[in-house]
Amino acid sequence: MSETESTEYDRLFYPFLFAGGKADIDDVLAQVRHSILEKCHEIVELRRNTFAQAGPLIVTTAEAMAHAFHNGATLLAFGNGGSATDAQDLVTDLIVPPFPDWSPLPAIALTNDIAVITAIGNDVGFENVFTRQIIAFGRPGDIAVGISTSGNSLNILAALDQAKKQGLLTIALTGYDGGKVKRSPAVDFCINAANDHIPRIQEGQATVYHTLIELVHTCLQQGERP
């Protein structure tokens, strides 16, 4: 790419492409390889630490979820930004299981309906975008799963509090030190991926909820199917 074809964005994010045409491709690839390996090491270490600190809690949480599903529960998942994507991933794996011996389980991602999100955000306030849906969809015995990297998202806190008031099983996935969510009396189970880098936290949380899904199906297969 020549200087005349480039933009300021290109030069900012890909400076090695504009080093007078003398960038060493082997050096660039070595840097990329080093970066990937460092990330892998960080992810593996976070997973080990999370399971070392919260392994029994993860099992207990999965057992509670399996019991709720067995009794007819629907899981309601929610989060902001990347955590919204995680909520959608969690729900997708529940309603469209990746393995043939897993039965579909009822679940709703409260981040999916953009009309609802924007209506509530505009008319009532963004802090209520999940709370209003909990009021509408939540039934006693259902499962609410709030995902927050900081543990301090106000709309996550409000939704978990409302879910607890309505008799839902409340589960939270957090990062850093767990924040206000971890300390909230409205949360039945909080699993924390302790880290201060958001991408690593989200990878740790993804590992946790995929583990929960597998454990839930294991519990259900050992007893009666929902």
Question: How would you describe this structure in keywords?
Answer:
226 residues, alpha/beta, 5-stranded parallel sheet, 5 strands
Structural class: alpha/beta
Can you tell me the number of structural domains?
A: 1
Q: What is the CATH class name?
A: Alpha Beta
Strand content: 5-15%
* CATH architecture heading: 3-Layer(aba) Sandwich
Helix and strand pattern = HHEHEHHEHEHEH
Give the overall silhouette: globular
Euclidean distance between termini CA atoms: 58 Å
Query: Helix amount, in percent?
Result: 55-70%
What is the CATH superfamily label? Glucose-6-phosphate isomerase like protein, domain 1
Structural notes for this entry:
There is one protein chain. The protein is an alpha/beta fold. 55% of the residues lie in helices and 12% in strands. It has helices at residues 8-13, 25-70, 82-95, 114-123, 131-137, 154-165, 179-183, 198-222, and strands at 75-79, 107-109, 143-148, 169-175, 189-193. It has a 5-stranded parallel β-sheet. Helix 7 (179-183) links the parallel strand 4 and strand 5 (189-193). Helix 2 (25-70) runs parallel beside helix 8 (198-222) and helix 5 (131-137) packs parallel to helix 6 (154-165). The longest helix is centred in the N-terminal third of the chain and has 46 residues, at 25-70. The protein is globular and about 65 Å long. It starts with 7 loop residues before the first helix and ends with a helix. The mean pLDDT is 90.
Overview in brief:
By secondary structure, the protein is α/β, with parallel strands linked by helices. It has 8 helices and 5 strands; from the N terminus they run ααβαβααβαβαβα. The chain has a 5-stranded parallel beta sheet with strand order 2-1-3-4-5.
